[in-house]
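Below is a filled-in request sheet from our internal design queue. Each sheet records the structural input a requester submitted and the sequence that came back. We keep these sheets so that new team members can see what a complete request looks like end to end.

REQUESTER: design group, bay 2
PRIORITY: normal
MODE: inverse folding
CHAIN LENGTH: 198
BACKBONE (tokenized):
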């Protein structure tokens, strides 16, 4: 991989979540940072403000395991696909891009946000939560998946496109709850689909 570093020896690096596709931050890298990233499997960058190498998460513990490095067509920008161990932003936010036009969320942000909500319900267990009720009763969750699958099938045969969309959303929600109840995530299912498509 031949990177075209600029006159300061730097290259912009977009950091993207391997599992969700969400952009976490934009930083800079140099030749040494790329070498260390490849050697350690964890993201290393160049801090322009501190003028030094930066092992992402070395202080906070929020390291980023690098799954792939990709170069753009001109060779002057890098994409790091990572599995973050915690928030990417120094503010404690999951991503550095948490201000600006946040509504409506982009389509690719919806399922990752839902999975974070399910994980929060599982951990925090708010009283009266339908999700917690489902997580505590795997048989009920399985029955709801079956029921919603029947409803989307019926809607596809007999009802409007809007009804199909709504029933499909119900299937996806209940299926994700079922997965989380088993300690699984959408990424686990996507890995199977990826393997099957090869």
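RETURNED SEQUENCE:
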């Amino acid at each position: 991989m031949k990177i075209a570093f600029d006159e300061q020896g730097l290259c912009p690096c977009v950091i993207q979540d391997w599992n969700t596709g969400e952009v976490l931050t934009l930083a800079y890298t140099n030749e040494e940072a790329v070498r260390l990233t490849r050697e350690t499997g964890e993201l290393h960058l160049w801090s322009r403000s501190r003028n030094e190498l930066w092992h992402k998460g070395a202080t906070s513990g929020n390291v980023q395991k690098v799954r792939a490095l990709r170069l753009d067509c001109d060779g002057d920008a890098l994409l790091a696909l990572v599995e973050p161990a915690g928030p990417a932003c120094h503010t404690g936010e999951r991503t550095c891009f948490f201000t600006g036009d946040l509504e409506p969320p982009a389509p690719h942000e919806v399922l990752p946000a839902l999975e974070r909500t399910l994980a929060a319900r599982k951990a925090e267990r708010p009283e009266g939560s339908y999700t917690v009720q489902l997580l505590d009763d795997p048989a009920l969750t399985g029955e709801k998946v079956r029921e919603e699958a029947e409803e989307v099938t019926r809607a596809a045969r007999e009802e409007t496109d809007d009804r199909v969309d709504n029933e499909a959303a119900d299937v996806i929600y209940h299926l994700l709850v079922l997965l989380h109840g088993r300690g699984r995530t959408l990424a686990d299912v996507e890995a199977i689909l990826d393997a099957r498509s090869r």
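SHEET NOTES:
- The beta strands are 11-17, 23-29, 44-47, 52-55, 64-71, 78-84.
- Residues 11-84 form a domain with the Ubiquitin-like (UB roll) fold (CATH 3.10.20.810).
FILED BY: M.R.
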